[in-house]
């Protein structure tokens, strides 16, 4: 067995590992190389940070065997999101996932976050072992629904939103409320009919 020397570094401090990192991620979660590049190239000290686990062997090879990303949450400055946690298939079950998560948590605490949040479809047990517990879903992106957009109930009823009832004539109101939004095409049939819903988990970093 080769003697492994494992290091965990920020991807922006090791840009020569970007290609390997893209391959690691895309082998697990296929995505266009450009989209993946855009996502991981954003790694910077002010977040998001992509942490990579690199295995340097005595034979001089340097392999990227793990990745995890720490990102800010738009509505919660005290919490960060840990995403895209991945260990190369050949290196799973050796404690590397746990090690990488611990490094993420240490760095997140150092950056001032008191809670780490993540979402998962099927790795609840792995995260539970690391001390995570189930929590309410968090919003990861941008602002909430814009007031100018139709409400969910309006979309469900397929009605275009109207101006204030008083400001339009009865005929116009009838016309507007009877206009229906075209139906989107049906979703492609998936073999994965029972796709598991994702759950959110969190862990306090003040321990
Ligand atoms: C999930 C993943 C990161 C775990 O990495 P790993 O290196 O295999 O995990 P470790 O060896 O560090 O395991 C730490 C502990 O969790 C347990 N564990 C790991 N994966 C587990 C799983 N799928 N279910 C239950 N327990 C698990 C281990 O048995 C170990 O327990 P122990 O401390 O009692 O021995 C890895 O399996 C992976 O990359 N999976 C594919 C990508 C993925 O699904 N990522 C998660 C996205 S939310």
From TrEMBL:
Domain N-acetyltransferase: 6-161
One cellular component term from this protein's GO annotations in UniProt: cytoplasm
Domain of life: Eukaryota
InterPro entries according to UniProt: Acyl_CoA_acyltransferase, GNAT_dom, NAA80
Region (Disordered): 143-193
Biased composition regions of type Basic and acidic residues, renumbered to the chain: 156-176
One Gene Ontology molecular-function label: N-acetyltransferase activity
Name under which the protein is recorded: N-acetyltransferase domain-containing protein
